[in-house]
Write a structure and sequence with these properties.
A 5-stranded mixed β-barrel has the order 1-2-3-5-4. A hairpin with a 2-residue loop joins strand 1 and strand 2. The chain has 4 domains: about 90 residues, Nucleic acid-binding proteins (OB fold (Dihydrolipoamide Acetyltransferase, E2P), Beta Barrel); about 160 residues, Rossmann fold (3-Layer(aba) Sandwich); about 35 residues; about 50 residues, no CATH class. With about 400 residues, it is an alpha/beta fold. The longest helix is centred in the last third of the chain and has 43 residues. Helix 4 runs parallel beside helix 8 and helix 5 runs parallel beside helix 6. It is rod-shaped, with a radius of gyration of 63 Å. The chain is built from 13 helices and 13 strands.
Length: about 400
């Protein structure tokens, strides 16, 4: 669709007519309610000239409050406040400026703000950004501490002074940022990005010395909260507001109640650490002394034993034992020999009692035939048989001349 063009190069509008047309067109908008953050509030001769910025975007418009209207407004307003204005757009042809003439102005209801924050809190909590398991431990002694705070603020002085009192050698890299107003979020995000990029920064502190609820809204901004959650460096929140804790406190790795408390959390107390070292040394010295004492007593106990006090007694005792054992062995050997001798005599006597020699000694003889058989019956021999007659001392050959026996006699 072709753009509609009014006027011609030969018959152009005058600037007066353009201004009048703009004023008429803008005037037809009437009154309307607008919500935003006051980024400028200047009182000049009873009239206020200010700027109102969108709470989520970067659009800014100018507004003014005439003294007649200002006298009817309840409450006080200042830069950083979130407000709702009833304005009527007005174009000033002479200056060629557009301004919003304010008829009413009021603070945004805290109930609305709290409801929005609570909804954002639930969303972030459901994503796990507040979980204790994802929070990181602070280093025991950081190489460099990053500090984000307002320029020349009490919070900066408190953190630096108290940290250096606890550990004089602590190093800081301070990044100044706005801690209230519309520049809070962008300047804190930029400072956080710079400190995150520094490899020497081991922990980052975001500090502000308290303030009212509306001044702390920037520290509940979703962009800042998500940036802190995504940071790789541990972050300490030291906003210092007990009643209305900003969301930064929930997502930070550690929440400090005040900037002074943050200084106590990020570095150890050198006096306490020296005291602990002294106590550890004393305990170690006591343990070593006790151990050495016990070992000395044990060594003295071993040295006082007779076997070490008089080592020759061990040899003499063993010599006596050896002599007793040798005497005992001799005695046992003699007993064994004696018993064996007695058994031998007994066996000899038994053998002699059973031996045919004793029978031969009494005058008997043993007669054997030629084939070596003992002749027990006279009938077993015949006249002319050769016989061997054994007597007590030697033997004789004999020949059978006749056989005498029961049968022969018969």
């Amino acid at each position: 669709m072709a753009e509609r063009i009014t006027g011609t190069p030969d018959e152009p509008w005058s600037v007066d007519r353009l201004g009048a047309e703009l004023k008429s067109y803008i005037g037809r908008l009437g009154h309307l309610w607008v919500e935003g953050e006051i980024t400028q509030w200047s009182n000049s001769r009873g009239n206020v000239f200010g700027k109102l910025k969108d709470v989520d975007g970067d659009t800014t418009v100018s507004f003014n409050v005439w003294s007649s209207t200002l006298s009817r407004i309840e409450g006080e307003f200042k830069q950083g406040d979130r407000a709702v204005l009833l304005v009527k757009p007005d174009f000033w042809p002479r200056a060629g400026t557009l301004s919003m003439v304010t008829a009413q102005i009021r603070h945004v209801g805290l109930g609305d703000l709290l409801a929005r924050l609570e909804a954002l809190r639930r969303t972030l909590a459901a994503e796990g950004l507040f979980d204790a398991a994802r929070k990181r431990r602070l280093p025991f002694l950081p190489s460099t501490v990053g500090l984000i705070t307002g320029r020349d603020s009490d919070a900066e002085k408190d953190v630096l002074r108290n940290a250096q009192l606890r550990w004089p050698g602590v190093r800081f890299r301070v990044e100044h940022a706005a801690v209230q107003g519309d520049q809070t979020v962008p300047t804190v995000l930029a400072a956080l990005e710079r400190l995150e990029a520094d490899p020497e920064v081991d922990v980052i502190v975001i500090a502000r010395g308290g303030g009212d609820f509306q001044n702390l809204l920037g520290f509940s901004d979703e962009r800042l909260v998500r940036a802190v959650a995504a940071a790789t460096t541990p972050i300490v929140s030291a906003i210092g507001h007990e009643n209305d804790r900003p969301l930064l406190d929930e997502v930070a790795d550690l929440r400090a109640s005040t900037p002074t408390d943050a200084a106590k959390r990020i570095v150890p107390d050198v006096a306490e650490e020296l005291s602990r070292i002294a106590q550890a040394r004393a305990q170690l010295r006591m343990r070593v002394t006790q151990l050495v004492g016990r070992e000395v007593e044990r060594l003295e106990s071993v040295r006082s034993r007779p076997v070490l006090a008089r080592p020759e007694t061990m040899l003499s005792q063993r010599a006596d034992d050896l002599a007793r054992l040798a005497a005992r062995a001799d005695e046992l050997a003699e007993r064994v020999v004696e018993r064996s001798g007695q058994q031998l005599v007994h066996l000899r006597q038994t053998l002699r009692a059973l031996s045919p020699q004793s029978t031969l000694d009494r005058g008997y003889a043993v007669v054997q035939t030629a084939d070596g058989r003992v002749l027990r019956e006279a009938g077993a021999a015949a006249p002319g048989d050769a016989l061997l007659v054994t007597v007590a001392a030697g033997s004789v050959d004999a020949s059978v001349t006749a056989v005498h026996g029961d049968a022969a006699g018969a």
